[in-house]
Design goal:
8 strands
Length: 290
């Protein structure tokens, strides 16, 4: 059963647009030292839609090599093409990833049957544990609870990253899921209510900049200390909100750049933030002593 804090890690780029391997390794080392359960390379926060296939494999390879089995590596290998998702998942398995994050197909808006067949085909193509990523705001289609529960009966579909934004839907999943199936929050701000209802943790954006505090936050939930978790939630609420003042990962990458941990380099169509957002990032650095 998956549980704990997983960091949806950014992909640093050099000024010429190539992957900044040195900075990426240092970011990973900081995450491991902070005690995260795992890192998630090639997710939305890692700008996966604009990585080519070679870069996608390279990011996962670097992550696995730097982690050295000290935490899990949940590789983002989803696609709106089933064939592509299968191939990328096979590559991730060969590179040493411990699991695969599979986003609900985007843009082509498959039916519930299409979603089921998509994930079933991926699961049957590899024995790598699969985490479904449900995020209607990005994909344009929601995975209904009934579809997810049917998919959870497939042996190596072991968890869901729930970013539907609907606590009601999350609770339905928690009520109906089989034993051993994990429900992780895909939204830092909803981690507390989800874990209070039986969720297992979070795949976090905020932990890119405050990994130790996020590990503490999630550990409170795992230990059923929701009074302490609630106190931290209120302290971190503004950070959780303002990290999305522009499209993720723009603000979180800008904070890391302002701290000198990565270069302020984005892969188009993701671009530099506005001056107003940059000032918000500076404010967050000061307020949270990032």
């Amino acid at each position: 059963m998956l549980q704990g804090l997983y960091t949806a890690i950014v992909t640093p780029f050099n000024e010429d647009g190539t992957i900044d391997e040195h900075s990426f390794r240092e970011l990973i080392e900081e995450q491991v030292s902070a005690g995260v359960t795992g890192i998630v390379p090639c997710g939305t926060t890692g700008e996966s839609p604009s990585l080519d296939y070679k870069e996608h494999d390279e990011v996962i390879r670097i992550a696995v090599d730097q982690v050295k089995k000290r935490c899990e590596v949940m590789a983002g290998t989803g696609s709106n093409s089933t064939r592509e998702a299968i191939e990328m998942t096979k590559h991730a398995k060969a590179l040493g990833a411990t699991s695969s994050l599979q986003v609900v197909p985007y843009y082509n808006k498959p039916t519930q049957k299409g979603q089921y067949e998509h994930f079933k085909a991926i699961a049957e193509s590899s024995d790598l544990p699969i985490i479904i990523y449900n995020i209607q705001g990005r994909t344009g289609v929601n995975m209904e609870t009934s579809t997810l529960i049917e998919l959870s009966k497939i042996k190596n579909i072991i968890a869901v990253k729930e970013a539907s934004g609907s606590i009601s839907q999350m609770i339905d999943v928690l009520e109906l899921k089989p034993k051993g199936f994990s429900v992780l929050s895909g939204d830092d701000k909803l981690t507390l209510p989800l874990m209070a209802c039986g969720g297992s943790g979070v795949i976090s954006v905020a932990s890119n900049v405050i990994p130790k505090r996020m590990a503490e936050f999630v550990n409170y939930g795992l230990n059923n200390d929701f009074i302490s978790m609630r106190k931290m939630q209120l302290e971190l609420n503004e950070l959780f909100t303002k990290l999305f003042v522009e499209t993720n990962p723009i603000p979180v990458k800008k904070i890391l750049a302002l701290k000198g941990k990565i270069k302020s380099s984005f892969r188009l169509p993701i671009c530099e933030p506005s001056d107003k957002t940059t000032e918000i990032c500076k404010y967050l650095i000061e307020k949270y002593k990032i």
